[in-house]
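Backbone-to-sequence.
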């Protein structure tokens, strides 16, 4: 389908319940993928042993274990640095996002001159699990504010599915170690006047009892990062 080399970056922290199943689902998309890079953010459960076992089964899989738990942003920055593909696709380890969506996410790169593609949970994907109204409202508010400062008409800035040409990642310096990397990435990429696309995706969001990690404080951090990276960095 694609002549591009695709690097799938999987940040992981305490995902022993999902990491094996997730990587299996990613590997089903084998013909699309150049490499899979798993970056473990110092998990305290059995994730690291599972990652080692998974990596032994397929030469496309690379893994890196961080010495400190710093957050999703730190894991992604490490994954970006280690990637060798022309396009980088971010894949959370928690099964909220379905790897069967890869063809949809990659289509704008193949059919158009896209530089960045976001998978939107709000454009009518196949299935959307309903819960957490306040999360939905926070996402829409943060996206709205981000749109004001980027002059984009995104519907889902906080999406976990972000797909970016590697050359554009190499032209920016990312700093945020936690979930603040989502608005930081968006603001810094938008400053380059790149061509953004959105595609609809399905979403199976977890509850906190199922392992969801992002919380209300992260919404305030994201808001701070929108202003910080738009005006001061």
């Amino acid at each position: 389908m694609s002549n591009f080399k695709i690097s799938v970056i999987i940040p992981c922290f305490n995902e022993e319940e999902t990491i094996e199943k997730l990587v299996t689902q990613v590997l089903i998309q084998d013909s699309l993928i150049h490499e899979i890079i798993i970056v473990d953010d110092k998990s305290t459960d059995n994730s690291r042993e599972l990652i080692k076992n998974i990596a032994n089964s397929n030469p496309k899989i690379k893994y890196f274990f961080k010495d400190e738990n710093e957050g999703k942003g730190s894991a992604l920055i490490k994954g970006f640095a280690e990637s060798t593909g022309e396009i980088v696709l971010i894949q959370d380890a928690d099964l909220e996002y379905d790897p069967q969506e890869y063809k949809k996410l990659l289509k704008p790169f193949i059919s158009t001159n896209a530089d960045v593609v976001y998978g939107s949970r709000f454009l009518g994907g196949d299935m959307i699990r309903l819960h957490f109204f306040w999360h939905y409202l926070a996402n829409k508010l943060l996206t709205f504010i981000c749109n004001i400062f980027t002059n984009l008409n995104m519907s889902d800035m906080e999406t976990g599915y972000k797909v970016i040409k590697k050359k554009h990642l190499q032209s920016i310096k990312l700093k945020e170690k936690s979930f603040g990397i989502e608005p930081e990435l968006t603001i810094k990429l938008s400053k380059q006047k790149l061509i953004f696309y959105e595609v609809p995706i399905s979403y199976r969001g977890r509850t906190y009892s199922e392992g969801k990690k992002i919380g209300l404080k992260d919404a305030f951090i994201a808001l701070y990062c929108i202003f910080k990276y738009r005006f001061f960095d």
